[in-house]
Amino acid sequence: MAEVLFAGLKYEDVVREYSSTVVSVCIMRLKNWADAEDCFQNIFLSLYQNSPKIETKEHLKAWLIRVSINECTNYIKKNRKLLSLHETKEQSVNFPTDTLDISWALVELPPKYRDVLYLYYCEKYKVNEIAEILGYNANTVKTLLKRGREKLKSIYGGDGI
């Protein structure tokens, strides 16, 4: 059987290149390493089994982020038992080091703000791209960014965001 390519990448290369993004999205949503691992596996299994037609790396990354958010949302609905990162001090979470380091602060925000701020600051997506990934209107994304920044400032202080 011929190898399935995703935006010109072999499956193994996709996992290698986008695993940190998928893990970060899962940790942001679930706040629990073990649950994030479960979702991570389901996401890449879905990619492998469904073999969606993906032409560009940008589309592939957006697809993986969207599927990650959906998988985590479904996982939360199914399990309803979340354990906070603060309760699992023995587990360390390593967010990508090449991104603006607000990851630690984002986990405390409600998901609608967390997703938008994460995609904007950590993944460097533009407002229109975030709107497309999340299925929102661009103005909604701008509003969520503004309100999310305000929430971060009120919780953690500072004007750096």
Question: Would you give an account of this structure?
Answer:
The protein is mainly α. The protein folds into 2 domains: 86 residues, Orthogonal Bundle (Rna Polymerase Sigma Factor, Chain: A); 62 residues, Winged helix-like DNA-binding domain superfamily/Winged helix DNA-binding domain (Arc Repressor Mutant, subunit A, Orthogonal Bundle). It contains 7 helices and 2 strands; from the N terminus they run ββααααααα. A two-stranded antiparallel ribbon has the order 1-2.
Kindly report the spatial arrangement of strands forming the biggest sheet. 1-2
User: What is the percentage of strand-forming residues?
Assistant: under 5%
Distance between the termini: 49 Å
> Tally of extended strands?
2
Rounded to the nearest angstrom, the radius of gyration is 16 Å
The global form is: globular
CATH homologous superfamily heading of the largest domain: RNA polymerase sigma factor, region 2, helix turn helix motif
Q: What is the top-level CATH class of the largest domain?
A: Mainly Alpha
The name CATH uses for the topology of the largest domain is Rna Polymerase Sigma Factor, Chain: A
Number of helices: 7
